Amino acid sequence: MLTIGLIREGKIPPDNRVALTPAQCKWIQQNLSVTIKVQQCEIRCFKDREYIEAGIEVKEDIGDCDVLLGIKEVPVGMLIPGKTYLFFSHTKKMQPYNQKLLQNIISKKITLIDYECLEHDDGTRIIGFGFFAGVVGAHNGMMAYGNRTGAFKLGRVYKQKSFQQLIHTYFGLQLPLLKIAVTGSGRVAHGILEVMNLMEIHEAEPDEYLEKKFDYPVYVHLKGADLYEDKLTCKYSRIGFHEHPENYNCLFKKYISETDILLNGVYWEEKIPRLFEMVDIKKPDFTITTIADISDDRNGSVPCNIGDATMEDPIYGVDKLTGKKTIPYLENSIDIMAVGNLPNELPRDASRYFGEQLIKFILNDLIKGGSKIITNATIVKEGNLTNEFGYLKEYAGL
Ligand SMILES: NC(=O)c1ccc[n+]([C@@H]2O[C@H](COP(=O)([O-])OP(=O)(O)OC[C@H]3O[C@@H](n4cnc5c(N)ncnc54)[C@H](O)[C@@H]3O)[C@@H](O)[C@H]2O)c1
C-alpha cells in the first residue's frame, strides 16, 4: 500500500495551499489502497483539525511516507534524503534561484517529479493552479483600474472566504466604458474569462474591437492565431509556433491604442516575441494604463514587469519615460500587477481545484508506477538526472 505525505510548505513568503483537501484525503483513503499522512502546519488553508476530523493522521515526522506532495520549492534544509517528491520545482528553465535546490535533490538521492512537467502527449499540461491565478489576477487588474480612475471600487480577494463569496461582491458593480485585452489560451486565460463573464463584460471579436466604438465595456480574447504570425507565411500553426517561436512576429501592437487594461495570461519563454517592447510605452498611442501580468515573467511577454510585488501590496507603477518603478496610479506611469502566488488569495478553492485534477489524472499512475506521464515528468530519479532532462546537466553541477 502506498503512503502519501502532505508536507508543510517551507518557502518564504509562506504558501498556504495544499495538494489535497481533507475531504479529498478521506475519499482517497476510502476508495484507493493509499494511506495519507499530513505534516503538522499552522498556516495551511485547511487546519490540522480539519484533517483529523476527516480521519487523516496528522504528525510532525512524515519520513515514513513513500511519496511526499508539496506545492512550492522545498527549502534545501527540509529535503528528506531518498524520498520521492512532487512539487513545482521551477528548475526546468534553469532558473538561477533554484540551482542549489536541484543540486541538493541530486546529492540527497531524491526522486523529483515536477507537477509542471506532467503533460498529455500533445504537450498540454495536466495539472496546475492557473485557473485561480487567472481569477485573482483579473480581479486585481480590474481593482487597480478602479483605484486609478475612481470610477468603481473593488475590495481585496483574500478578504473573502471563498470564490463563491467573491462572486457576491460583483453584484451591482457598474463599470465605465472600458476596453480590455485578454491574452493566452490555458488555465490562466480561462480564469480571466470567468471574471470577465461574472462582471458581465461583453466579448468583442478582434476585428470589431479594433474598429467599432462601443457604448458598454468590452473585452477581446487574443489567442495564438490572433497574437502571432509566421514571419514568412503570415500564418499561425500551433506546432510550428511551439517548436520555433523565434520565426514568429507578435501582432499585439495593433491592439495597444484601443486598450485600457491588459490581462496577460500567455505562456512565455526567451525565444517567444514579447507583446510589445519597452520603447513602445513611451509612445503617445500607448493608452494602456493597467496591466495585470498574470503570467508573471519578469521582463518577459510584458517587458515593463520589472519584478514581483506581494499579495499584501500587489500593484506598482512604471514610469513611461524612465521605465523605473514608481508608486501606483501616477499620471505618467503604467500600473503593473505582478504577483507570483496569486492563487494564495483563494487558497481553499485553489487547493480543491488542484486536488481534483491530481486525483483524476495522476493518482492512479502514482499508485501503479511506471507510467509515461510520470516518467516524462521525472527530472531526477534516485539522485540521477533523467535523459529527458539531460540538458540540465551543467546547471545541476554534473
Ligand atoms: N502569477 C501566478 O500566480 C501564476 C499562477 C499559475 C500560472 N502562472 C503562469 O501563467 C502562465 C500560463 O499558465 P497556464 O496555467 O495558463 O498554463 P497552461 O499550461 O494551462 O496553458 C499554457 C498555454 O500556453 C501554450 N503553450 C504551452 N507550451 C508552449 C510553448 N512551448 N510555446 C508556446 N506556447 C505554449 C499552451 O498551448 C497553452 O495554451 C505560465 O507562465 C504560468 O507559469 C502564473
From TrEMBL:
Q: Which residues bind NAD(+)?
A: 267
Give a yes or no for keyword Oxidoreductase in this entry.
yes
Keyword set, alphabetical order? NAD, Oxidoreductase
Q: Please list the GO biological process terms of this entry.
A: lysine biosynthetic process
Residues in Alanine dehydrogenase/pyridine nucleotide transhydrogenase N-terminal domain copies: 5-136
Which InterPro entries does this UniProt record tie to the protein?
AASS, AlaDH/PNT_N, Lys1
User: How is this protein named in the record?
Assistant: Alanine dehydrogenase
**Which Pfam families does the annotation name?**
AlaDh_PNT_N
- MF term (GO), any: saccharopine dehydrogenase (NAD+, L-lysine-forming) activity
